[in-house]
Amino acid sequence: MPEAQADKVETESILAWLGRIFTSFGWLAAIGLLAALALARLVDGGPTPLAFLALLVQTFAFHAGLGITVVLLAAIAMRRWKLGFVLLLGVLVTVGPLGLRSIRSVAPPIDDAQTLTVISCNLGYDQANPNRLIAWIDEVDPDVIVLQEYGTRWAEIVRTRLRDRYPHMVEEPRPDAFGQATLSRMPLSQHLRNVWPGYWDIPSIRATLEFEGLLVDVTNVHVYPPISFAWFEMQREQIWKLRLDARSRLGETDYSSRRRDVAGTILIGDFNGPWRTGQLRPLRQETLHGYEILWEAHDKISRSRGATWGPTRRPLSLAPGIRLDHAVYGGDLEPVFSVVGPDVGSDHRPIAAGFRWRIDSP
User: Fold this and answer.
1) What are residue 241's phi and psi, to 5 degrees?
2) Are 182 and 269 in the same domain?
3) CA 31: distance to chain centroid?
């Protein structure tokens, strides 16, 4: 056999071998992703190790979908049609929802006298850059500001640079990750240090204010991050406490005819988990008298993923982020806009959401 022909045969043999490896890897990736998503869907409730794994799968499903998209393009180029079809299913399940969000109709943002605008920012252990964050606060011009991971450094910044504009404040600076502050232009009719008294000695400030003649709760949320199974269990309990508090404030749990404490509620801050996960399902599926009472503003009206957290150093900073910060609302409120702010020197980006009373509200 001539040497050139032998080299050609050897090259074809190597390419065929690489093709088989790629096909095996593609099938493993496609079936593995679909199986993991299905299993996560089945076990994403309750404080169990499998539910903990389900949270990880659901959190990084979009990232896995992007990886599968690359494999899909390679499969199409190599004419692996059956493999491509299965990979396409994985892409549709993980990345497809973003495509549907991007084409839905969204009204232009409105921020007027009838809009209650709230900003939330996790300060990253008190290290957020004050010039960057306050510049964005100036741009958005919110009515209420809630801050998490609030320490003595930012307490001094608030006193000297924000207190004149936001004279009504409840704060608890701490040296750990659970300090909080709630600042308001409007007087606070009442406030509560946390919505889980007797359970965890960390704040979750609930401030009540009057907006256009009706009372609304603004709860500053920062629950435990699920960095271990023990914290995962405690985080789930905290989510349940948030749910029960919102439900009791919006109407009696025993369906009596007692008047509601407030007409609307906003739970905003760092939930340490994506909205569409089993860990936050108690909030998504909360009902009163057979009707849903809690929704997430960005999930309801925005076209984007609205990622708020991610690595800040390259090359990991190039990867898509995760939305851990949410503006959950209920009662007679409806969202007007939901946006994510710029990099302010924290590992979280700030968020802003605007709300108004529904036209059919009393």
Assistant:
1) -65, -40
2) yes
3) 28
